[in-house]
Amino acid sequence: MRPKVFITREIPENGIKLLEKEFEVEVWEEEREISRKVLLERVKDVDALVTMLSEKIDREVFENAPRLRIVANYAVGYDNIDVEEATKRGIYVTNTPDVLTDATADLAFALLLATARHLVKGDKFVRTGEWKRKGIAWHPKWFLGYDVYGKTIGIVGFGRIGQAVARRAKGFGMRILYYSRTRKPEVEKELNAEFKPLEELLRESDFVVLAVPLTKETMYMINEERLKLMKPTAILVNVARGKVVDTRALIKALKEGWIAGAGLDVYEEEPYYNEELFSLENVVLTPHIGSATFGAREGMAELVARNLIAFKRGEVPPTLVNREVIKIRKPGFF
Q: Where is the D-isomer specific 2-hydroxyacid dehydrogenase NAD-binding domain (predicted)?
């Protein structure tokens, strides 16, 4: 009898096909998000679970899933999973790093450029016919934005994504500052990057890109006090997690001119709506699409499948998050 895997959202077909060779696969195919009630019901007889960031996988889920041995998160982050509780129960947890690094770094730079150069505002100006109504081709004071080439970028979080953002910044001739829990001397040499304490980085940067995981230490790390340290011409870009930024403080900063603008791909809650934030013209918004390229999403699906197949074969999954679980239970279902 093949182990059963339940997938809480339809993932790219390449991952499904790989899993179907080794598992009995059930997929939640409805476009709407799976409800908590349905999730708790569906996990009762599964051996493996593929889940998304928006689903809370905690003690209640584990208690409803007596056969569950592995949770494969279709994301690089895993703050939606109670990893400590999973480890206690001998449940393996995996994620999908690396394969979405470049796609997310690309989006970070897209948000940076779009915010700096008023691309969304300009697009609206053309589409609505306002340009035609103005009756002139251009004006020297229209849509004045901020130069990017040769400016200073501060990257908060210098893991895979943060370093990928730095490589792009290097191509723009930017001075690169970074802040992380530990210094990375080899990467500093490669990218000509300078380590700075967070407060100094915020003071000196023309652009600040957030690329940290959500932890107790990073929750609301960008608050009113730290936003006030930034230049009034600075732009904040968040491709990390929404709760890294205090949204109320950010709205105040954008309205009162503490900073020039913001580009956001993540929010404190998702899906999200904030009329006050969304009414501001100096913010560019995307719906958590950092990994939304064909290549990245298919790479994530393949990595999810590789993790589950390795576990089934009694091997340690390639991107195991909680390695200490190996001491509690060997990989494998039976």
A: 109-290
